[in-house]
Amino acid sequence: MPMEASADGLQPLGQQSERRCPVCALFLSAGTLERQRVWYCQKCRGVFLSNDDFVFIVGRRRARRTGPPAKPAPLNPEELKRRISCPACSMEMDAHPYYGPGNTVIDSCERCRMVWLDHGEVGALAKAPGRV
């Protein structure tokens, strides 16, 4: 999928990391979302970013949202069973519902203060109902 088609609006920077995608095992590439540096997988389009950048990006996208919020899909309990390793420390990440609006399951590493988002989850969180 070309980057222009990214549901998350990710802009590639053309740099590669030594860190690997926890889903595809490919090397992650550098990119930006809302001018914040993130790492993404060119195959599955997952995004790896710091907790602080995650909060900033989702907050900014929600503040600019126009139109009515999207109706969240029901939480899929199977997503909570997924086990992936943190690209930074290789320890198992915690799969849990995002504790903001919407029914999105995210993966986070409390040790590294990093978050893994599957492709499209930034957009889903930005369109979720609830306060900005």
Question: Which key features would you list for this structure?
Answer:
132 residues; alpha+beta; seven-stranded antiparallel beta sheet; globular; disordered N terminus
- Class based on secondary structure composition and strand pairing: alpha+beta
Shape: globular
Number of helices: 2
Distance between the termini: 30 Å
Number of domains: 1
Which whole number gives the mean pLDDT?
88
The radius of gyration is: 14 Å
E-strand count: 7
What profile does the largest beta sheet have?
7 strands, antiparallel
Order of helices and strands: EEEEHEEEH
Low-confidence stretches: 1-5
Strand order of the largest sheet: 1-2-3-4-7-6-5
Q: Give the DSSP E fraction (strand runs of 2 or more residues).
A: 25-35%
Instruction: Tell me roughly what share of residues is in helical segments.
Output: 10-25%
Concise overview:
This protein is α+β, with helices and mostly antiparallel strands and 132 residues long. It is built from 2 helices and 7 strands; from the N terminus they run ββββαβββα. It has one domain (3-127).
Question: Which helices and strands, and how do they pair?
Answer:
Elements: E1 11-20, E2 27-33, E3 36-40, E4 47-50, H1 51-64, E5 94-97, E6 105-109, E7 114-117, H2 121-127
Antiparallel strand pairs: 1-2, 2-3, 3-4, 4-7, 5-6, 6-7
